[in-house]
Fold each of these.
Amino acid sequence: MKPTRILIFAKAPVPGRVKTRLIPALGAEGAAWLAALMLDHALEQARAAGIGPVELCMSPEPGGADWLSFILPPDIATSAQGEGDLGERMARAAQRRIDGGEMVLLMGTDCPGLDAERLRKAAACLQSHDAVMYPAEDGGYPLLGLRQFHSGLFADMPWSTDAVAHLTLERMASLGWRVWVGESLRDIDEPGDLAYLPKWLDQTAVIGPF
């Protein structure tokens, strides 16, 4: 049985550079504070899932000044996302780990509903499928799991549109892959999404430093 690695993609929670679509509602400091909370949550859930190694794919690269105030748990591996669009960055990380003999769960930090239980479910289904996905209600996906790599899943994708999940599933179908699809989850990207924050996260964000 191949080991499974969770790859979490995140930007440094720097005001004005992260969660910019939430700035009209929260301000730059508030949006960055919420981004940091959601990154903490993603790391906590990935570790709690107990699936395998957890790796934070960072932008900018690890050790840079933007990350100095963010303390990572000691068991988190780190890597640089590198250059290119989201597809190029995810493709590099996925191929590196799959070529090394692992399966991967690729996830971001924008979906509080992607908890340890759902991560365990995705990892279990990946044992008998070529790929797994939790789609997002906005048409993207908070999580994509892969047993094998194919560059076509990431190339020429209209990222940040409502076509991403549908096109990805179409491409996997054309490859003849067996795919498990979980329930749709909500990303927190726009001011209207803030109404769907979990109560604990909503309360923490409200009393943040802004």
Note: The domain at 4-192 is CATH 3.90.550.10 (Spore Coat Polysaccharide Biosynthesis Protein SpsA; Chain A).
Amino acid sequence: MRLLHTSDWHLGRAFHRVNMLDAQADFVGHLVTTARERDVDAVVVSGDVYDRAVPPLAAVELFDDTLHRLADLGVPTVMISGNHDSARRLGVGAGLIDRAGIHLRTDPSACGTPVVIPDAHGDVAFYGLPYLEPALVKAEFGVEKAGHEAVLAAAMDRVRADLAARAPGTRSVVLAHAFVTGGEASDSERDITVGGVAAVPAGVFDGVDYVALGHLHGSQTITERVRYSGSPLPYSFSEADHRKSMWLVDLDAAGTVTAERLDCPVPRELARIRGPLEELLDDPDLARHEEAWVEATLTDPVRPADPMVRLTERFPHTLSLVFDPERSPDDPDVSYARRLAGRNDREIADDFVAHVRGAGPDGDEQAVLQAAFDAVRADAVVREVTP
């Protein structure tokens, strides 16, 4: 069984002020061509098909065109919803679309019901685990405390129970949208820490042959059987060093995994440059970035006049301008930034309480603060996914 594993298309998303729809359409064309030319048996898309719950019309039209092209190709496709998608909207018409070989899996209650695709060696069961927001699905999975590991573990128990009831030798693929321990995040993934610690151990997925992950935008191998495809396009300058790709995965008769990384089309290179403005304008080594999308960090101690205008004369595709003036170590702004570096919202709130009253919050107060932050994030998730 040959699979093409991709995720995190984020249809409708822009890169800073650049409309990415043409680049997204180019990727879709590349995906279809690859599936045809490499004799792919199934395409798996592990969530974040859209960038937001109510996508723009042009993104919906591109998705519709994609579904038609994949159906015409005759290659079965399994998709799950991610944390950016509205599961209910993405799943509309799923029963009818199934008949065309496009299998949308957006309902958490169906985690243990696979799409079964046969090959010359027998059946392969594809289990779709859409993004499982702990606060919204804990009742479905009967977990006492909402947490990412708890709900994913309960979903995987259903997967393993169904798999155990199938014929010996049935191979298995799980699609999941989650933050797995050992993965490296970027600036462009939406925070999913509501409901407790976001990261889950890879061992949650034990017992299946391949786990096609989505959520993190960099292509990564957590284990030989657990992989992120990453996003096919960059959505922040933190992805400047990413190699955008898909995984071409072969499962043999015994379920052994062989994976090949296939590059995606690059609309334009990314570059992050840093230094005083005059040096950036004069440095001959930066000539290679003159046609790239550029993020420039200026270190001038005093903000120079018209920096964006001057930068775009040399780097016409400059999209982001950051000021990080060089200061002495005893500058109050430097010490404040250092105190905040690497600290999450809760920790910053704890520091504020300590600063105001001379002592940090006790255990009960910390629980109240954590509950408040979780409630805010959960409310944002509910508003995102509710039609």
Note: The radius of gyration is 23 Å.
